[in-house]
Amino acid sequence: MHKEGEFDIDIRHLSKIEGHTDLEVRVKEGKVQYAHLKISESKRFFTQGVRGKPALNVAQLVSRICGTCSIAHLQSCIEAVENAMGVVPSEQTMALRHLTNDGLMVRDHAMHLYIFSLPDIMNADSVLELADRDKSLIEKALEVKSAGNELSKLVAGRSVHAPYPNVGGFTKVLTNEQAREMAHTLSHAREHAIEFVELFRDRMPSFSRKTHFIALKNPAYEFTGGELCSSEGYCIPRGNFWDHLDRVVVPYSQATGFEFEGKEYMVGSLARMNLNKGSLHKDTRRDLAGTLSLFPSSNMYMNNLAQAIEIVHCIDHAIERLEGFDFKMEQYKTPPIRAGSGIGVTEAPRGTLFYAIKVNEQGMVDYINLVIPTAQNFINIEKDIAQVVQDNFDAGKEKDEISMEVEKLVRAYDPCMSCATHFLKLKVRETKKAVRLPANPWTFSVEGKR
After folding, report:
1. Of 97, 294, 356, 447, which shows the fewest CB atoms inside 10 Å?
2. How far, in Å, CA of 160 to CA of 338, rounded?
């Protein structure tokens, strides 16, 4: 055991996550003094770079914030621009957007679960080691991920930085024959996706810390639409989110954090599952009923299991729509220019993603603001890390074992550090005190002051 209960955990470049971050934990006299997640990626100033650009084109620009969940940024920005300019999408456009989200979730969750987190629960160093042990398991994983990629390419044009979705519609629409063929492909991948649900369920670590969960809530477990709801039992209009949000300047990190009504909170698959499990596709509920009984849960490792369940749900949801919708070619027309302000909200793979935009009379972007899932989870992650370190220290585990458990926990959040560092340049003071965002986001200036 460590001398007098004192040691540091210092992990440089945490592995198997999206982006780059370091971790520092200090234990003194047997008590955790602090846990610092230090996001080290440089800011990229997207929110400044798109000002003065045509609003109809800006979604393709901001989608470059992320190379994995670019479609979530694309969809949120499109919705914000449509709300600002008074554009109402057709029923078919909404069906295509839901399918686009399904493809995103399947391929993105599959990458995180099967490439990053699967080695954790299988006691392997990497997926390459797993491939040597059980080639068929990795082949099944890649088949599920491939199905998500193919759905995204068919419906949206590409699995990353998709070209077909635009403000007001899609520039290309799949045929009914293509839709039915894709449904068949997904049906085969579904069998493997269910196997992985069982695998993650049976190997789930135990951990619990009470926190606040927030997600969109709607009747069909869609990733757009509905109200923003809390595990504490209330819902708020999506446009009022900024009235409840505190931005927290973190002096040792390139990314800021957020609190909701002065408290840490969690967004992501676990939050969605805790709030919406009764709205999952009927086939998902039927085949995974026993697993679903484990939710709601405050075990953050269960975010992995929630993602595995969402893969099955998205496959079921997509199959039903691909088989039942009559797709027809719609001539895409550029919407007329109109000034206004709008909000766009999408459940990205890692949680609720918010866009606010202001468009002027020339159709140019005057202002844009984003709230990223990983930044919202930042403070919650640090508090969970501190608790995991304390629990494992009290259980008599050594430093190396504790460090491994911390890495597993961080990976369970599926963080995206690249997304989290897009923010505007702020005038930072050495303080951990929360800085409250203004109720009206349009008054929040580039320099971070009113």
Report:
1. 447
2. 29
Mapped onto helix, strand or coil, the DSSP state of residue 219 is coil
| Alpha-carbon separation of residue 148 from 102, 105, 158, 160, 185 (angstroms) | 8, 8, 11, 11, 10
- What global pTM score does this model have? 0.87
- Distance CA(66)–CA(417), nearest Å, equals 9
Helical spans, DSSP H, in 262-398: 269-276, 282-287, 289-292, 302-324, 373-394
Over residues 321-341, the pLDDT tens digits come to 999 999 999 888 889 999 999
Q: How many CB atoms lie within 10 A of CB 310?
A: 27
Q: What is the CA radius of gyration of the chain?
A: 22
Amino acid at 189: A
Q: What's the chain's length in residues? A: 450
Q: Which domain holds residue 398?
A: 46-443
Q: What's phi and psi for 359, nearest 5 deg? A: -115, 135
Beta strands 227-230 and 7-11 are: unpaired
Extract the tokens encoding 185.
Answer: 């492909």
Would 201 be classed as within a structural domain? yes
In this structure, what CATH number is given to the domain that contains residue 217?
1.10.645.10
Rounded distance between C-alpha atoms, residue 345 and residue 237, angstroms: 11
DSSP 347-368: EETTEEEEEEEEE-TTSBEEEE
Residue 32 within a domain = no
Q: What would the pLDDT profile of 341-350 be if each residue is shown by its tens digit?
A: 999 999 999 9
Q: What is the C-alpha to C-alpha distance for residues 235 and 226, in angstroms, rounded to an integer?
A: 10
